[in-house]
Amino acid sequence: MASGIGIADACVEAFNEIKLKHQHKFVVFRVNNDLTQIIVDEKAGPEAQYSDFISKLPRDDCRYAIYDFDYSLPDGGVRNKLIFVVWCPDTAKIKAKMLYAASKDALRKKFVGIGNEFQATDLDEIEYEAVLEKISAGGTK
Q: Which residues lie across from 44 on neighbouring strands?
């Protein structure tokens, strides 16, 4: 809590729902309007696609997200990893970028069991193929 922003209990609950029960494909988090707490912004059911996730990231504001990423290995095996995304587009306000950067570690520490972390400023950095390449070391769709 270096930034002075707290983390709502609902954030940890949503993380556990995705990690332990696979109730959601992704959860998006944001700082509330009072700039006092990180809250759940949106959840998507397990049927959601990666394109649905990308569409929920605002083009001019920051967000945090957890995505339940499934992929196949060349030998036919299927893997699953939780990824943590810090979305701070270049078009976001400086204050928002600083606030999200300063609050990231406090939120990340609440989410035990994250496979990979992605910090993205544009969509190319979190396009499906780029994420797949980083987490799978040669996996396929």
A: 26
